[in-house]
Amino acid sequence: MAAKKARKPADGSYSDAWRNFSKILLRPGIRMMMRLDWRGQENIPAEGATILAVNHLSYMDIFAVSLFADSARRYPVFLAKSSLFTIPVIGALIGKLGQLPVYRGQTDIALVLRQAEMVAKNGACVVFYPEATVTRDPQMWPMVAKTGVARLALETGAPVVPIAHWGAQEILPYGDHVPRILPRKTVKIVAGPPVDLSEFAGQPPTNQVLRAATDKIMAAVSGLLGELRGMTPPAEPFHPAVARRKLREDLRALAEDGGQAGQGPAGTPEP
Predict the structure, then answer these.
(1) Model confidence over 13-33: pLDDT tens digits?
(2) Which residue among 68, 70, 233, 258 is least packed, with the fewest CB closer than 10 Å?
(3) How far is CA 94 from CA 86, 112, 140, in A?
(4) Which domains does the chain have, with CATH numbers?
(5) Is residue 1 predicted with pLDDT exceeding 50?
(6) pTM (predicted TM-score)
């Protein structure tokens, strides 16, 4: 029954009372967990449909980005794992806050985008993690992103504000379950001006168009992250599938080299 209930499409509705309660609870709670060094809130529109495109380093960055959006007087709407909506109390609460469920493994992924589009058109501030998961890049740069953020932006006309952050991964590294709150660490956040996607306006949403728009959004996010880290982002973003294929090729080559090393002239075994 819980699973069926969780699959009910979100309609973007929320409770003002519960949102106000969450502000009272989370504002001081988040500040107790981390120090925040941020700038660029003026780039987030004060009202109307808005998309925040953010890099993903840790589950802890959700709290940092939430407070950052709140500091710009926007209540953030996240695309959350559908499994969270089945947890007693928590599931009901995040539903009342207007968060959106993402059904992993669902063949019709367009459902998620339709829900996000509906909410955005109602004037919400939607937080989008274009990578769809915590980065797997060994140097923690953004990976190759999914194209959902570009599709949502082009279909709604909502501005896409690039946001980068650094430091949340020190509080809760990916894979850990217990945050390292003490000593309190600093999370740096910066928002840039909305990405200019006017060159894609009116074009059919082909894979080529969506990929180009997505890459432009992620280039802005990576550039901001480079500023925070004082480093130059890689020319090409990390691609997990390509990295796995390269690893298999390297291991195969290493195995072949090892086999040949045990052979003498003309492939005869060495004495």
Answers:
(1) 788 999 999 999 999 999 999
(2) 258
(3) 10, 16, 29
(4) 2-259 (3.40.1130)
(5) no
(6) 0.86
